[in-house]
Amino acid sequence: MPRTLGASGPTVSPLGLGLAALGRPGYITLGHSGDMGLDRSVQALERRAHAVLDAAYGAGVRYFDAARSYGQAEDFLASWLDSRGLKPGDVIVGSKWGYTYTAGWNVDAERHEVKDHSLAALRRQYTESRARLGAHLGLYQIHSATFDSGVLDDAAVLGALAKLREEGTRVGLSLSGPQQAAVLRRALEVRVDGQPLFSCVQATWNVLERSVGAALADAHACGWGIILKEAVANGRLGPRDVDPTLQPFRTLATEQGASPDVLAMAAALAQPWTSVVLSGAATVAQLDSHLRALTLPYGAALDARLLGMEENSAGYWATRGTLRWN
């Protein structure tokens, strides 16, 4: 069933496609190196991205997520939209500003992205995003807003975002780290000229890391759109992971006649405040697997069994910080 991106937002598909693993040669998903193969040229990755985008669109996916720091994700998405003759409104496109890609197409780079939430970065990156995506760009988000960057207290940045909103671009933010809930609650309070600034949030939520759930429910109650990312926990809840501590999860998935990633995606889709769950698929086969979550029976009894698998939030993010770019 189609959903809306918030109380007054556009209709979206329950499953969306994120391009973090498709727009650059390296990412922190377990087994990403094997997915990408030996040819990681720009041309090869664009062909791969287009193949996954075609499969997603053919399956009814209508929300696509990119960011300035995802290598050439915006370029790949733009060339796909143009070559398939899609018009603004045929799909919903969101992108993000605040990180700059610095790896130079090198998987082994010392640093893959640099964070900058300044007004100058917003102006530069919005111009870049708009030049690539044109009128398709409907949602523009602060990339990984945190207290450390001070972005939610920067009057100049907030004013510039409010101007984008007035011009018709929906404004949101994405979250990361153990303070997701606190940052979101602060964002719910942000006003510019007496009006709420944000109307959408993209957060990490999965069966291992549920700490932001109550805050997401509050945002949903305020009419915000809720986009969930990392539902498969960067592959930790996927079929390749062999962590013995996660064997109960894998066993439960088998009991449901599903692979682990399908159960993980189904759990995210079942949350009552969810608008869109992003697939981070790097291959058509992975996307096909994630799509099966849309038809997996999921009820309160199954959700209750998954509740006991939640990790300590700080521990979850510490583990995520050890994942290797590959």
From TrEMBL:
Pfam families attached to this UniProt entry: Aldo_ket_red (PF00248)
InterPro entries, per the entry: AKR2_Oxidoreductase (IPR053135), NAD(P)_OxRdtase_dom_sf (IPR036812), NADP_OxRdtase_dom (IPR023210)
Gene3D superfamilies from the UniProt entry: NADP-dependent oxidoreductase domain
Domain of life: Bacteria
Domain NADP-dependent oxidoreductase span(s) in chain numbering: 46-297
The name this protein goes by in its record: Aldo/keto reductase
